[in-house]
Structure formats: C-alpha cells, structure tokens
C-alpha cells in the first residue's frame, strides 16, 4: 500500500554524503523534506539540488531539514556534488542518500514502473515534527520542481497546524487567510481580533494571525 497523507513516515537507516544516518534521529523535532531525483550527473537534477542548497537559510528559518535521495552509489553522489557546487554556485551540505538497495525508494513509493523500472521519479514528501506525512508531490523526470512552492506549502502547514485557518489559492505568507468552516462566524470574531471579513457565510477571511 502506498503512503498517504497523515501516515507515519517510514524510518530507515541510510548511507549519505553526510555520513550514515537514522532518518528519525536526523530529523529530531524538525520538519523534514525528503525528495528523490532520477539520477546523478543529469541536468535538471543538478539545478534542483543547487536551488535547494541556495535556499538553505529559508529552510533553516522554518526549522526544516532537507534530504535528497537517488539509487546512485555514494562515490557518484560525492563526485556529482562537486559539479553541483561549481555550476550552481552553492554548497550542498544536506545529505544525499545513496539508496542502491532501493530501500528508501520502495518505502516511499518513489519508483513508478510505468515511468521507469529502475530510477526514482521526482517525489517529494514534507514530514511534520510528529513524523507524519503532510504533503506528497510527484513530478516526472522532465520537469524540475519549484522549491519556492515547497517553502510556501511549509509556511501554510506551519500556520494551519497552530490556528483554525486554511490558506487560499496562491496564498503567500503575509496575505489574508481563510477561517476554517468548523468555526462559526461568532467564534471567529472572538478568535481573530484583527477582524473577520464575511464574503459568504462559508467564505470568511482574516489577516494572518501570526504576523504583525
Ligand atoms: C534530468 O535531471 O535532467 C533528467 C533526468 C532523467 C530524465 C530526464 C532528465
């Protein structure tokens, strides 16, 4: 059975470019982003890992630890990492898992046989501090992911974990958010002192509660 939202993220031990890790121990109480790529020394993957490294401070600010994974061996990862640093003007210092046995790929359903029998597709999982799967996305090999979108989703997940709100289409941190349907308008007015704008009884906005 493949993983679904809310499932426990499977733990594993793995060899990585940052040494051997136990996934849960590595994450500690942080949020996690685990993302697979098809293969080392390929152009789109090179830009994806480079972009992730360049966004290091953004991930750190949000308390997120990042890990990449493919089925390539460690020595290949290490050589390729030099190329990523050189061509993308970055320093990759997050772990790249060498998943030669495909243990991680199989635990997370990262191999889609009708796309490729051998390589992982571009899967990405956001994992909460409770080790539950909060988001899953899957892109084909031909399409690089948008890591600003990953940060945007993390902002939404971290906000909605703590307040009775949801975030509308294309929302960005700082913009108004939506009061969840389970809160009555009367209660919303008490809960959200910055104000509640009622567009329809089921569509109510309030300023983002954790921003000044
Ligand atoms: C790439 O990362 O550039 C790539 C990998 C596999 C297939 C197509 C593109």
C-alpha-based Rg, rounded: 19 Å
Mind telling me the CATH superfamily name of the largest domain?
Answer: Glutaredoxin
- Note the overall shape: elongated
Task: Record the strand order, biggest sheet.
Answer: 5-4-3-6-7
Mean pLDDT: 97
| Count of DSSP strands | 11
Topology of helices and strands:
Blueprint: E1 13-16, E2 19-22, H1 23-27, E3 31-36, H2 43-54, H3 56-61, E4 64-70, H4 74-88, E5 96-98, H5 103-107, E6 122-127, E7 133-139, H6 147-160, E8 165-166, E9 177-179, H7 185-191, E10 197-200, E11 203-206
Parallel strand pairs: 3-4, 4-5
Antiparallel strand pairs: 1-2, 3-6, 6-7, 8-9, 9-11, 10-11
Bound molecules: benzoic acid.
Benzoic acid is lined by residues 38-39, 42-45, 141-142.
Write a concise keyword list for the protein shown above.
212 residues, alpha+beta, Glutaredoxin, Antioxidant, Horf6, Chain A, domain 2, four-stranded antiparallel beta sheet, 7 helices, 30% helix, elongated, binds benzoic acid
Short description:
This protein is α+β, with helices and mostly antiparallel strands.
Structure description:
It is a single chain. The chain contains seven helices and eleven strands. The chain is α+β, with helices and mostly antiparallel strands. It has two domains: 13-144, 3-Layer(aba) Sandwich (Glutaredoxin), CATH 3.40.30.10; 163-206, 2-Layer Sandwich (Antioxidant, Horf6, Chain A, domain 2), CATH 3.30.1020.10. Strand 4 (64-70), helix 4 (74-88) and strand 5 (96-98) form a beta-alpha-beta unit. The chain is elongated. The relative contact order is 0.15. Bound molecules: benzoic acid. Benzoic acid is lined by residues 38-39, 42-45, 141-142. Benzoic acid (BEZ) binds at residues 38-39, 42-45, 141-142.
């Amino acid at each position: 059975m493949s993983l679904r939202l809310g499932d426990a993220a499977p733990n594993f031990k793995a060899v990585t470019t940052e040494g051997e890790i136990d996934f849960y121990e590595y994450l500690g109480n942080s949020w996690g982003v685990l993302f697979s790529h098809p293969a080392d020394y390929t152009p789109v993957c090179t830009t994806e890992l480079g972009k992730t490294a360049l966004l290091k401070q953004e991930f750190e600010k949000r308390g997120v630890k990042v890990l990449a994974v493919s089925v390539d061996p460690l020595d290949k990862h290490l050589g390729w990492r030099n190329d990523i640093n050189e061509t993308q003007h970055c320093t990759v210092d997050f772990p790249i898992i060498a998943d030669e046995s495909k243990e991680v790929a199989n635990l997370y359903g990262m191999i889609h046989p009708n796309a490729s029998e051998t390589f992982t597709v571009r899967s990405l999982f956001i994992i909460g501090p409770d080790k539950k799967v909060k988001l899953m996305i899957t892109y084909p090999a031909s399409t690089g992911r948008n890591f600003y979108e990953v940060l945007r989703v993390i902002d939404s997940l971290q906000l909605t974990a703590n307040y009775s709100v949801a975030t509308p289409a294309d929302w960005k941190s700082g913009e108004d958010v939506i009061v969840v349907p389970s809160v009555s308008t009367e209660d919303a007015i008490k809960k959200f002192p910055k104000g509640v704008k009622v567009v329809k009884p089921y569509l109510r906005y309030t300023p983002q509660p954790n921003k000044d």
